[in-house]
Amino acid sequence: AISQYGLQIAVGSEDGSIRRWDALSGAAIGGPMLGHTDGVESLAYSHGSSRARIVSGSTDNTIRVWDAGTGESVGTPIEGHQGWVLAVAFSQGGSCIASGSQDKTIRLWNSVSGAQLTTLVGHEDWVRAVCFVPGGEKLLSGSWSIRDRTLCVWNITTRQLLHRLPGFSPASRSMTVSPCGRYAAARSYFTDYSLHVLDIEAGCSVGTSLTGHTETVTSIAFSPDGTHIISGSFDGFVRIWD
């Protein structure tokens, strides 16, 4: 994961540790952040909060919150999932955490108290990606398997499933939302290694698929101004799309 202004990078490991680096100098920041008892599957930085936090999800079935400056654990482990925590995200402002799990649920948590706020049920297999939509009322989630290869759009206030879009295989870094909150980009489930742009409000694809990669797409991001999409792939290339 990378911090809001791109100055710090955090990486989670199979040994349960999390390490931070200065993105400009490449120097390690502090020692390893220890607490998880199994591998770290997902990380995210808070955006827009006064004190930067890191949230981590693990195959020990827990979520932890960390101070991004000191590396210290904040509060106690957040428990509730009945399976691995495969995806985590902070809401704008950092007051809420979303998590996706092997138990097929998405859960929302108060990031300060760790209290569970709600559970979203609708996926038929592991939830591998979660992403808040700017504005705070919507959340995207993704699953990919033979049983469930969908991207879902939720209203988190009413817990209503607004749209279910088939044919996607979003993982933790292969689904992203534009800064304006209107569009999302995700990789296709099919073997053409393509990307699709989605209209979140309408619940449909926009334009034609973006093709060019020759291996699995591993990461996708919008540019800060929302005019370009950047994708990385196992084919060794980073591509920029208009």
UniProtKB/TrEMBL annotation:
Family annotation (InterPro entries): WD40/YVTN_repeat-like_dom_sf, WD40_PAC1, WD40_repeat_dom_sf, WD40_rpt
Organism of derivation: Auricularia subglabra (strain TFB-10046 / SS5)
Name of the protein in its database record: WD40 repeat-like protein
SMART domains linked: WD40
CDD domains: WD40
Membrane spanning residue stretches: none
Annotated Gene Ontology cellular component terms: nucleus; transferase complex
Keyword Cytoplasm assigned: no
A Pfam short name: WD40
WD repeat ranges, renumbered to this chain: 1-22, 33-76, 78-119, 210-242
Keyword annotations: Repeat, WD repeat
